[in-house]
């Protein structure tokens, strides 16, 4: 048992550990209640005077803290009883030799059995089956016969563990072997079935007893009466109460059960009147009846009334209040009224010296943990240690949960690893907190190990904890462990959520284990679980990457059958994959046939396939679909014509594209969308002269070309060095009332950075213009500034404003401004970066690389490396050009 000095040391010790651990990188993501910082004050001098490093201090402090709690936990250990249960643990049920060896070993440890000894062992036991083995062994020992008390205890153990089938089997065996027992046979059966929640069977047995002239004793009558009340068999309760009264068995237990009967029927006024009548007769002496009444008011959410009762009878001093206080604290805590419960406890402790039982402390700590009120949990743990209150397994679980929630994962792990030394058996709450904390700390392997151990101990985590661990395993690519986890869950009849399956399948796809993902998906289909839309996308894209377009095509059809709508891009990806396989035409038409068999022929279906064939550079397949659509009586819409035109252009079948465009003129008006598609498509295949001809023709026909047409032409002209034509198009764009877009402005600034040729061309063109006041003059100033030919007096903050007068800024614009500044002033570039972020623009890879490269070029390697590290921290992979500088 630890001394008070040792306990006080651990209280002081816990404070700085909480502070240190909360600031360490390994646990920075964990929750730490801010009020715990209060405890650092009492130990601050130790921290400031120590000469050791914080890590060394942390390790030694954690070890001392673990040792302190270990000593406290060991208070409940009984070496003699531990030996008994260790022997029982070696016994194999179906092995006669093993059972014989265990019997002999137990006989040496417990040569003289008594009722008290058996009750103590059963009370100490942690494992239900081990308790049952001990009960069986004790009943077979010469000179010892089980009593009503020992039978009732083992029945309560089975009932509390909710092992009703085992309990009923136990009772049936007892009925068949009645000659082995001298205890009142019928009483035990009646009590057993009553406790097992079978009051109807208990009543039948009771009836047979009475018919045979037998009767229950006081103890059995009250067990039966309580079971009837618990199962709401109120019509029989009055009969049994009369039988108890007639035999002179009425006592405080009878009164307590009757109070419970009243409040279960919501007859609380009668319950109170019944209790006051008992008090006036001087018949209530132990406080149990009042505690049941208080509990009844609380269960019916009448806390004010319950509180007044507690206060009234405490002042009268007529009833012992310890039991009442315990029930009142428990009910307040369970109702979430924790502050009231804690205030009441402090008040009664200071004024009356009241010390709750260990299980009242446990109720408070469990509720406080759920609300993350760690300061109060800490106080209660220290209060129990200082009061030398022997902890039970729930107390130890609360301590384990506290260490987890306080971010003290190292301490929690150490306590968990030492659990066999003080018989700690984590419960479901402790396992859930422990696994969640380990996952949050990134200790996924440890979390998985704890989970496996919890399953071995008979616990399976809650759905939320399972999902957290599954998500972590998928995120870290520990897919074999994830597979084992799913198999164990299914073996326990636990069906993981569809979201968990989807994450697992997606993780398998990312790991290029698409076949495994497909098998999991098949299992989901088998049990009628529908995968998410995103899961289908991941599977389809993964099969496309594996050149398995046939499987991708089946999944594409399946996802539509399951109610998901594929995008055009997904159709396009599948079709492109099919076109890369053997017999592409056969595969392509097979998918089209499957699609048409599942849907009424519609223009959108044919358009998806025309688009897919066009991107696969199979214009002949696109044309076949286009003609098939017409043969089906479906008239091609504008999108069909545009997609067919684009399919020719992507394959650089220019003559076919021109012929098709000529055919279009004969059956529809050629508007801006078609000409835009033609011009943009020609630009993408580098046919700038033909694109310019179409632009002029469109303009001559009275149709203003689209801005996109101008953008692509200007970009292509600048790339080929035809700056004069590009500048004329910009001027033309302004004359037709169109704004210069960010795209065009950025293209001009980029080429200005590369050479002075654009500015020289601009200057010559400008000299020939009569109007010098248009927006293009400001744009020319910017081109000159970026090419280094014009010195501007404004700083770059104003230059941003100048750009905004010409075209809207975007991230690309800022990146070029940064590139221009990084040629000379890196400090100004950093200021611009800050302004960019303040204005809501999200920096990208080019942003960071521009700054890093600028610092490297100016010999400021340390600052350059910091920018590269920032890229890694944000999950951006630097290019090889940048990495070679690091």
TrEMBL record:
The keyword Signal applies. Keywords: Repeat, Signal. Residues 1-29 form the signal peptide. It comes from the Eukaryota. PPR repeats lie at residues 251-285, 286-320, 357-391, 392-426, 427-461, 532-566, 602-636, 671-705, 706-740, 810-843, 844-878. NCBIfam families: PPR (TIGR00756). PANTHER family: PENTATRICOPEPTIDE REPEAT-CONTAINING PROTEIN 3, MITOCHONDRIAL. Belongs to the PPR family. P subfamily. This is Pentacotripeptide-repeat region of PRORP domain-containing protein. It comes from Carpinus fangiana. The lineage of its organism: Eukaryota, Viridiplantae, Streptophyta, Embryophyta, Tracheophyta.
């Amino acid at each position: 048992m630890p001394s008070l000095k040792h306990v006080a040391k651990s209280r002081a010790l816990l404070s700085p550990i909480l502070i240190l651990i909360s600031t360490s990188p390994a646990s920075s993501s964990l929750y730490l209640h801010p009020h715990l910082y209060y405890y650092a004050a009492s130990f601050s001098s130790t921290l400031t005077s120590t000469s050791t490093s914080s890590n060394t201090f942390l390790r030694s402090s954690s070890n001392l803290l673990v040792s302190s709690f270990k000593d406290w936990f060991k208070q409940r250990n009984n070496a003699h009883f531990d030996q008994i249960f260790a022997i029982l643990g070696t016994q194999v049920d179906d092995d006669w030799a093993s059972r014989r060896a265990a019997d002999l070993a137990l006989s040496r440890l417990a040569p003289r059995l008594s009722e008290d000894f058996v009750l103590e062992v059963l009370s100490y036991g942690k494992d239900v089956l081990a308790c049952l083995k001990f009960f069986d062994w004790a009943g077979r020992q010469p000179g010892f016969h089980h009593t009503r008390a020992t039978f009732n205890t083992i029945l309560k153990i089975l009932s509390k563990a909710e092992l009703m089938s085992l309990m009923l089997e136990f009772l049936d065996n007892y009925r068949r072997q009645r000659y082995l027992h001298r205890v009142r046979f019928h009483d035990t059966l009646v009590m057993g079935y009553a406790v097992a929640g079978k009051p109807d069977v208990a009543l039948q047995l009771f009836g047979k007893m009475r018919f045979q002239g037998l009767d229950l004793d006081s103890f059995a009558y009250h067990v039966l009466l309580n079971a009837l009340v618990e199962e709401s068999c109120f019509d029989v309760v009055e009969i049994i109460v009369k039988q108890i009264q007639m035999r002179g068995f009425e006592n405080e237990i009878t009164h307590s059960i009757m109070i419970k009967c009243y409040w279960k029927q919501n007859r609380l006024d009668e319950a109170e009147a019944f209790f006051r009548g008992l008090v006036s007769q001087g018949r209530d002496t132990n406080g149990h009846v009042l505690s049941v009444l208080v509990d009844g008011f609380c269960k019916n959410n009448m806390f004010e009334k319950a509180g007044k009762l507690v206060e009234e009878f405490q002042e009268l001093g007529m009833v012992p209040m310890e039991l009442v206080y315990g029930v009142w604290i428990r009910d307040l805590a369970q109702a979430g009224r924790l502050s009231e419960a804690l205030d009441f406890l402090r008040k009664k402790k200071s004024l009356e010296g009241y010390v709750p039982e260990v299980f009242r402390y446990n109720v408070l700590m469990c509720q406080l943990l759920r609300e993350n009120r760690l300061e109060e949990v800490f106080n209660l743990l220290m209060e129990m240690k200082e009061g030398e209150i022997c902890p039970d397994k729930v107390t130890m679980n609360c301590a384990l949960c506290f260490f987890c929630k306080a971010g003290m994962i190292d301490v929690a792990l150490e306590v968990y690893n030492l659990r066999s030394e003080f018989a700690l058996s984590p419960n479901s709450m402790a396992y859930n907190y422990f696994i969640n904390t380990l996952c949050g700390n990134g200790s996924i392997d440890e979390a998985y190990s704890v989970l496996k151990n919890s399953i071995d101990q008979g616990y399976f985590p809650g759905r939320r904890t399972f999902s957290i661990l599954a998500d972590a395993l998928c995120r870290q690519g520990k897919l074999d462990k994830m597979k084992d986890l799913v198999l164990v869950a299914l073996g326990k009849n636990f069906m993981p959520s569809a979201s968990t399956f989807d994450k697992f399948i997606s993780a398998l796809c990312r790991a290029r284990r698409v076949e495994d993902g497909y098998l999991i998906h098949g299992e989901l289909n088998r049990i009628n679980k529908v995968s998410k839309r995103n899961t289908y996308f991941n599977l389809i894209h993964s099969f496309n990457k594996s050149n398995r377009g046939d499987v991708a095509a089946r999944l594409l059809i399946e996802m539509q059958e399951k109610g998901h709508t594929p995008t055009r891009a997904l159709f396009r990806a599948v079709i492109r994959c099919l076109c890369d396989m053997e017999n592409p035409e056969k595969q392509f038409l097979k998918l089209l046939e499957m699609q048409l068999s599942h849907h009424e022929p519609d223009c959108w279906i044919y358009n998806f396939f025309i688009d897919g064939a066009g991107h696969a550079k199979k214009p002949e397949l696109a044309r076949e679909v286009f003609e098939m659509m017409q043969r089906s009586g479906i008239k091609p819409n504008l999108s069909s014509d545009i997609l067919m035109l684009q399919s020719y252009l992507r394959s650089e079948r220019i003559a076919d594209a021109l012929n098709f465009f000529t055919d279009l003129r004969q059956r529809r008006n050629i508007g801006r969308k078609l000409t835009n598609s033609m011009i943009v498509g020609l630009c993408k295949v580098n046919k700038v002269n033909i694109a310019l001809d179409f632009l002029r023709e469109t303009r001559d026909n009275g149709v203003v070309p689209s801005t996109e047409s101008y953008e692509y032409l200007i970009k292509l002209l600048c790339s080929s060095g035809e700056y004069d034509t590009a500048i004329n198009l910009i001027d033309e764009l302004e004359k037709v009332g169109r704004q210069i877009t960010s795209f065009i402005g950025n293209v001009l600034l980029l080429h200005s950075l590369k050479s002075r040729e654009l500015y020289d061309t601009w200057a010559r063109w400008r000299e020939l213009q009569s109007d010098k006041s248009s927006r293009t003059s400001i744009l020319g100033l910017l081109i000159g500034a970026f090419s280094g030919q014009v010195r501007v007096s404004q700083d770059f903050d104003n230059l941003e404003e100048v750009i905004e007068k010409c075209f809207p800024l975007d991230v690309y614009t800022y990146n070029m401004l940064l590139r221009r500044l990084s040629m000379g002033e890196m400090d100004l570039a950093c200021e611009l970066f800050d302004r960019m972020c303040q204005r809501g623009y999200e920096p990208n890879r080019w942003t960071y690389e521009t700054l890093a490269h600028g610092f490297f070029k100016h010999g400021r390697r340390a600052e350059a490396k910091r920018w590269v590290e920032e890229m890694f921290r944000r999950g951006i992979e630097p290019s090889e050009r940048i990495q070679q500088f690091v």
